[in-house]
Amino acid sequence: MNKTVAVFFGGRSTEHDISVITALSSVIKPLELMKKYNVIPVYIAKDGKWFSDDKLKDISIFSGGAIDEFCAKSKPLAVVFDSGMTFRKSGLRNKDIRIDIAFPAMHGPYGEDGSLMGLLRMAGIPFVGSDMAASVIAMDKVLTKQVVQANDISTSKFVFFSKAEFEADRDKIIKRVINDLKFPQFVKPSHLGSSIGITKVNNKDELVNAIELAAYYDNKIIVEEAVENLIEVTVPIMGNETLTLALVEKPLSHGDDFFDFNTKYMSGGKKKSGAKQTGAQGYSELPAKLPNGLYEASLDIAQKVYRATGCEGISRIDLLIDSKSGIVYFNEINPLPGSLYAHNWRASGISSIELVSRLVDLAEERFARNQKLETTFSSSFLKQF
Amino acid sequence: MKYYWTRFCPSYPQTIIYMLQCSEYRPKDYFAWLHRSTNFRLVMKRRKLDYTRKAILMLAVAWFILITTYIISLILFIQSIILVNLLFAILAIILFIISPLVIAYGIAVPLWLGQKFIQEPKERKMIEAARQIIVKHPALKIAVAGSYGKTTAKEILQTILSQGKRVVATPGNMNTPIGISKFVQTFDGSEEIIIFELGEERVGDVRKLCDLTHPDIGIITGINEAHLSSFGTIDHTIATIFELEDYLGDKPLYKNRESQLVASKIKDSDKLAFSRNGINGWQISDIKTDIHGTTFKAKKDSKTILAHTKLLGFHNVGIIATAISIADFVGLTPAQITAGIKETEPFEHRMQPKHLHGAWVIDDTYNGNSEGVQAGLLLLKELEAKRRVYVTPGLVEQGDKTREIHEKIGKQIAKVADVVVLMRNSVTDYISDGLHDGKFGGQLLIIDDPLEFYNNLDHFVVGGDVVLMQNDWTDNYA
């Protein structure tokens, strides 16, 4: 009998919509084409309710706006933790669906940040992608930088603070940022991806506005000093112990220009007319044409970051290169890259089907490995009571 | 019997008419398909019924037969209750149960009557009228016959000759007497060259079309086992296609030397036998082909043509050389011919390259013959690729040679492809056996739902792949 794979998507996140695309186009469809698994969509609505129905495999329910009506009319799933995970769909007769493997296709908080991974760990089922600890680290830009710095990997200079600290004494925070970092700077919410809430600033006024914007999305804000002579690259990596590296990819942007959410996802990457379009979002050079040695250096640093942060399954490591000094700085990690970065894997010789197939295998491999660990300890401690 | 109930689905009458339509209203093909089919819910997979006037009329007749059967059944049942007659009840139930068979077979009667007493007399008139127009027309008439390659030859000729002449050609697959007669109705008298594609399925077909089209020049593009089911033997196929030679007599007939079955009937001295080496004094050299097209040099006496076509594959060179020879004969200059060749490009679903996520997909799904398979595999071998992927459901209508031909194809594929994708049907095992015999060491995928595969090809390919998709397996061969 085919194993059942539950694909989780949507979620209480600003990246809800990106997650829908990742799940439907890059996960569910290739999994189904394998004819090896029973694929169950698990849609987490913006209010946190869980739903499952074959209708949710069709993009038209989302693009046509029928999803709100569907959620209003449908009964949410109940979850049973029965030495595993079973979804219970209530109706005239309850229908139970036991899950063999989970495939999170979620971006941002409550999905990519370790929350869902914690739940799946508790349930005791294999799941695709990084485990809880690595996801927590990867989804916090500050924490990730601290971890990679501790592993002797360069990062751009940065300052971080909480929303509460900023609101309590704005002047002090602004002064600290200006004293520690040169302009231009990037202001970012610490936990969001897809460039949401990120602003490039060149002066104090812009800095204040950008922090206010970032604080609208997150309680933790990071301000980074821009890298000079910038070449921005990204490296998708897959694997647990043995790693497979995709191609180094270069978004076609410059230091005075960066790709916000709209540019990445809404306009096909056309920030500037005549931009070369080769990536999934049509804004990248693949493979990146880098000056001598920087291509290999990027792969090397990316692997080190992947190891240092404990990533498994799949991740995408973003790097910043100072083309004059040749220094490769770590920028951030995407533990679940949008659409799995399937375009890059495809260019690397791995089809969408092979990609999801390998990811499921990696999930099962890690689960089997963890099952061998002892989780009980016999003691006479309770007998004394 | 397991799926007999599917004959009671509301879509059943529509399915029956769809089967008739796909069989081109030929009772023999329709009944063969009908007898093969079990689950009638799965018949309309690839396409839907095209609601032509004829189809609508036949559908109405089908519903009439069905409703009449139900009414008779109901009357019998009521009578059985009123008269307390068990026999009537049994008859009513039997009639209800066999009602789908009544439509399936009963529909043939009005079809035959309609064809015999309405359609055929009307068509005879139309064909005779067309024959009269063609006889009086002063244009140079070129007839193209063959088991394969007719449409490509016709398109190439039309494109090149149009550089200096007003040329018309039978559109699409209008290669039957009635199709050609409809085409003739579009003439305005100013045509200088008319190209007719001659279709053939039965002995005498080409002769009939020659009587209709009165060709001055003929081309035989190639002969193979296509339509072997209707011809019976390959000798019948050869004889039928060579009816063109019998008709032409001393008039020029160009014959494809690269087709084995045509070559067997060509004399060494025949100057009009064409191949990639040349024809009628035209010497071909420096042939190169890649995903962007084919280039070569053609030279005769002081005339030189540097040809570049977007058509893929060496197999096109011979017929382009023929077009050069005819174009030269009708007075086109080398510059005009060169320009014409440059305009030739792949036709829809015939060696048509498309870029897909860093891979090249060559759509040759309209190809339906073993020569086309060989030409495709030769091209696949020539092209630069990280992986060579070959996709096919196999060939239809190969008669009693089906097994032999598909095993041979399997062996040929094994030498070229890294990945083979087969669409599951009655010939899949034969190709697999051929792959095994050819010691195929790559990846073999067998797909149950071809449409799903074609629609999701982007999930299967990787950058650097060259994917050659050949042949089609429509519902009526299921």
What is the CATH superfamily label of the largest domain in chain B? Mur-like, catalytic domain
CATH topology of the largest domain in chain B: UDP-N-acetylmuramoyl-L-alanine:D-glutamate ligase
- Uncertain residue ranges of chain B: none
The profile of the biggest β sheet of chain B is:
6 strands, parallel
Instruction: Tell the overall outline of chain B.
Output: globular
CATH class identity of the largest domain in chain B: Alpha Beta
Strand content of chain A: 15-25%
User: How many domains make up the 3D coordinates of chain B?
Assistant: 3
The tally of helices of chain A reads 13
- In the CATH hierarchy, what is the architecture of the largest domain in chain B at level 2? 3-Layer(aba) Sandwich
Low-confidence stretches of chain A: 265-281
The topology string of helices and strands of chain A comes to: EHEEHHEEEEHHHEHHEEHEEEEHEHEEHH
User: Could you name the CATH topology of the largest domain in chain A?
Assistant: D-amino Acid Aminotransferase, Chain A, domain 1
Describe the overall structure.
The complex is a heterodimer of chains A (385) and B (478). With 385 residues, chain A is an alpha+beta fold. Chain A folds into three domains: 3-129, Rossmann fold (3-Layer(aba) Sandwich); 138-153 and 228-370, D-amino Acid Aminotransferase, Chain A, domain 1, CATH 3.30.470; 158-225, Dna Ligase, domain 1. Chain A is built from 13 helices and 17 strands. A four-stranded mixed beta sheet of chain A has the order 3-2-1-7, with helices on both faces. A four-stranded antiparallel beta sheet of chain A has the order 8-11-9-10. The radius of gyration of chain A is 22 Å and the shape is globular. With 478 residues, chain B is α/β, with parallel strands linked by helices. In chain B, 47% of the residues lie in helices and 17% in strands. In chain B, the strands form three sheets. In chain B, strands 2-3-1-4-5-6 form a six-stranded parallel beta sheet, with helices on both faces. A six-stranded mixed beta sheet of chain B has the order 11-12-16-13-14-15, covered by helices on one side. Chain B has a four-stranded antiparallel beta sheet with strand order 7-8-9-10. The longest helix of chain B has 30 residues, at 53-82. Classes of the chains: A alpha+beta (385), B alpha/beta (478). Chains A and B meet through helix 1, helix 12 and helix 13 of A and helix 20 of B.
